Amino acid sequence: xxxxxxxxxxxxxxxxxxxxxxxxxxxxxxxxxxxxxxxxxxxxxxxxxxxxxxxxxxxxxxxxxxxxxxxxxxxxxxxxxxxxxxxxxxxxxxxxxxxxxxxxxxxxxxxxxxxxxxxxxxxxxxxxxxxxxxxxxxxxxxxxxxxxxxxxxxxxxxxxxxxxxxxxxxxxxxxxxxxxxxxxxxxxxxxxxxxxxxxxxxxxxxxxxxxxxxxxxxxxxxxxxxxxxxxxxxxxxxxxxxxxxxxxxxxxxxxxxxxxxxxxxxxxxxxxxxxxxxxxxxxxxxxxxxxxxxxxxxxxxxxxxxxxxxxxxxxxxxxxxxxxxxxxxxxxxxxxxxxxxxxxxxxxxxxxxxxxxxxxxxxxx
Length: 365
Description:
Blueprint: H1 5-27, H2 35-60, H3 62-92, H4 97-128, H5 132-150, H6 160-168, E1 181-184, E2 187-190, H7 192-216, H8 222-233, H9 236-242, H10 244-247, H11 253-274, H12 295-324, E3 334-335, E4 338-339, H13 340-364
Antiparallel strand pairs: 1-2, 3-4
């Protein structure tokens, strides 16, 4: 795939312009986005991402197009998992809803910058050291295990890192609008708003560790890695407000992501064996009999895993809700030993009796 420096500059420039527009058009004035606004912009960014992938397929071939879509799906799923942690962080710091999108916006920009740095480092390592695929593969397998069984029990807002920040920096306990610092008695204090942003930046750094190796397991093209990450992060702020209530219902998302990370980890190890140069493995010769997993199968596997995890989550939470709040049939529901059906029959009898009584009284008069 031939990507000139000019194309890189245009891509990065357009990405920056999108985020600048987002800030001044939607985030600068504190407010909580409505469902219609969030849905409209989420759909816009998803359609834009799909059209970009089609463009890559038409211009550079559908092998690269498939790599982009597989990477985009993986990064989008990992980004939704990011949202869950963002929700925990903002709940821990009690961020007012009208300021949450500013925190999200800054967090997303930090995530893109960190991932950009990791993309550059990863590209350099892959270019010079083929054995890095072994490390990436092993890392993803470890992260898959932690994703499956670790969960999100701990709150980053109360973690050791944030404890260190609070000890080092003077912190005020109350919010002062969306200001990051405030001056009191001649001393500059940082507000919980800035603490939240620091926590989210720290979370972004952790997530970049599994995000970049994961997509490099699907493509070795740095341009595809960057654009898939950029499009996955675009619209993430709107998606947070659109599916905020749904996040807690995606109970199997972590397990679905674990399966995806494990699959990509195995794919990376297979690729490492296929291009092996380590002298203590097969005498430094490639193991050509080890299969290379095709990108078409990868795309199908990732898409199916996300779909199954989402569907299973929604079915499970629906059954749990029905079990906790059972709806009894009218004739079976009873109050003080009288069923609803009996109560209705009694009411009908009383009305009939009242009507007959009124008729009789009228006749007598």
